[in-house]
Design a protein that fits this description.
By secondary structure, the protein is of the alpha+beta class. It has 5 helices and 4 strands, in the order H-E-H-E-E-E-H-H-H.
Amino acid sequence: MYECDDVDAGRECIIKGVCIYMGEDPENLVQEYVGMDEGSINETIEDTTIGIYVVKEHVSSEEPENIGLVLEGIKVLKDLDDIASAVAMLFGLIYALNLIYPANLRYTFEVIQKIFMELDGDKLSNKALALKNRLFQ
């Protein structure tokens, strides 16, 4: 079995893996901005409905300068520790504010809500049910 020394990197891989398994693009959830100035990043973020942004100085940089959340084109949280925490915070905001999941990440957030968090887990789409059945085999 594959061993990962960095728990946060493992969690990030699992989250992105869920996106891919559900047929969704993980870049719709996490946008990385490498070597861009603040103005360019803000312009790009204005077009984002819901998501996570990661700012890095260089491609080779392991640690990001900033990780934050975007809702309706506005940075609502910044300086988060890692992608997994950012996903948890984003899910919490979406759930608490009763927002509709973005269409291009609908199944990913359904899995987070109904399988991982066990909130309203009795009503699953066929895709989420298939994943749940595979996880509990």
